[in-house]
């Protein structure tokens, strides 16, 4: 990407950062003080088609339908009208999305034009990454080569090549910690710190769907992982999570579901995640964002302060 375009995108990002911040601060205050439940974060599933079959995944290739551009635009409009301003595009694999000549970039640009303040993409990283228009690209990296490949097939080298060749510094690693990769937290933190195109790393614990229960961590294992993440934060690793939420995550004692998050898949709207209908799953939820958001919107002051610092640093 030309330096001029890179600079333009960065300047625009700084201006957006301030206006977004003011909007989110207003939303947060209203939600906390008036105990409102309006959504602010929305995810649109663009397809469940995926080129991978990860061991821990329960959502790939169930229909393998790639949803049309017009349908996705309608879904975005519906989310915008509900008040959503942080949008995620999610799969399957998002970079497989096509409609005629349109690609994922067209969806990101359309979302920006509609007025979404942050537009993020979730990917498995196996395709070239040239999407500077996205605010964050959440890219799954599940450990060192051996452990990542044990979970995601032989993809580690391809992914790291794509990360090194990415055309912007908007990547955030996304690691779901489970029985296979629980020892690889430091490796991913160090890589996130070292690679210039990577801004941070965000963690989750494995959420045990009925077919992947064996990968779940015990409370003791979660505590050890949180201690390791906290050590990495203290050592300067760019971790896009909140230490103050760790005790709640270890014990699974945060409120669920998160009413401020919604998911749209093929016209169907779900609160929090598409996993909302899996019996008993919310009590074992491993998604850090659910703990962080639900605690934030209940007015937890430690979470609030830490989120402010983290948001301003990594977005
Ligand atoms: S890349 Fe994502 S959607 Fe595809 S199989 Fe892996 S976890 Fe599932
Ligand atoms: S709280 Fe429930 S619906 Fe929300 S992400 Fe967790 S498991 Fe899914």
Overall average residue pLDDT: 94
> What is the chain-wise order of helices and strands?
HEHEEEHEEHHEHEHHEEHH
Strand order of the largest sheet: 8-7-6-5-2-1-9-10
CATH architecture level-2 label? Alpha-Beta Barrel
Briefly note the structural class of the backbone. Answer: alpha/beta
What distance lies between the first and last C-alpha atoms, to the nearest angstrom? 20 Å
Per CATH, the superfamily is Aldolase class I
Could you name the CATH class? Alpha Beta
Percent of sequence in beta strands = 15-25%
Rounded to the nearest angstrom, the radius of gyration is: 18 Å
Query: What coarse outline follows from CA principal-axis ratios?
Result: globular
Summarize the amount of helix as a percent range. Answer: 40-55%
How many domain units?
1
* Number of separate helices: 10
The beta-strand count equals 10
The main β sheet shows up as: 8 strands, mixed
Contiguous low-pLDDT stretches (5 residues minimum) are: none
Bound ligands, named by name, code or SMILES: iron/sulfur cluster
In terms of topology, how is this protein built?
Elements: H1 3-34, E1 41-45, H2 69-82, E2 86-90, E3 98-99, E4 102-103, H3 104-114, E5 118-123, E6 136-140, H4 145-152, H5 156-164, E7 171-177, H6 185-194, E8 198-205, H7 219-234, H8 246-251, E9 261-265, E10 268-271, H9 288-297, H10 301-314
Parallel strand pairs: 1-2, 1-9, 2-5, 5-6, 6-7, 7-8
Antiparallel strand pairs: 3-4, 9-10
Bound molecules: iron/sulfur cluster (2 copies).
Residues 207, 256-258, 272-273, 275-276, 281-282, 285, 287, 290 line the site of one iron/sulfur cluster.
């Amino acid at each position: 990407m030309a330096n001029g375009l890179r600079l333009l995108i960065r300047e625009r990002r700084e201006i957006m950062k301030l206006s977004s911040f003011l909007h989110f601060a207003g939303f947060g205050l209203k939600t906390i003080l008036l105990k409102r439940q309006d959504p602010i974060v929305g995810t649109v599933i663009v397809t469940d088609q995926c080129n991978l079959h990860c061991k821990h995944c329960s959502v790939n290739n169930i229909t393998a339908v790639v949803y049309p551009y017009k349908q996705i635009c309608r879904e975005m409009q519906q989310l915008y009208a509900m008040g959503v301003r942080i949008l995620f595009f999610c799969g399957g694999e998002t970079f497989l999305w096509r409609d005629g000549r349109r690609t994922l970039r067209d969806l990101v640009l359309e979302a920006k034009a509609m007025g979404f303040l942050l537009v993020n993409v979730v990917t498995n990283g196996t395709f070239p990454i040239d999407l500077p228009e996205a605010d964050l690209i959440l890219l799954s990296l599940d450990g060192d080569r051996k452990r990542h490949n044990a979970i995601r097939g032989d993809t580690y080298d391809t992914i790291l090549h794509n990360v090194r060749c990415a055309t912007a510094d908007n990547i955030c690693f996304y690691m779901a910690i489970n029985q296979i990769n629980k020892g690889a937290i430091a490796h991913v933190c160090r890589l996130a710190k070292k690679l210039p195109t990577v801004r941070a790393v965000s963690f989750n614990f494995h959420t045990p769907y009925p077919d992947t229960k064996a990968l779940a961590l015990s409370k003791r294992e979660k505590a050890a992982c949180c201690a390791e993440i906290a050590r990495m934060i203290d050592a300067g690793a760019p971790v896009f999570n909140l230490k103050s939420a760790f005790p709640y995550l270890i014990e699974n004692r945060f409120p669920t579901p998160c009413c401020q998050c919604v998911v749209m898949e093929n016209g169907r709207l779900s609160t929090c995640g598409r996993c909302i209908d899996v019996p008993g799953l919310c009590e074992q939820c491993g998604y850090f964002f659910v703990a962080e958001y639900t605690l934030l919107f209940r007015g937890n002051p430690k979470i609030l302060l830490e989120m402010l610092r983290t948001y301003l640093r990594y977005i």
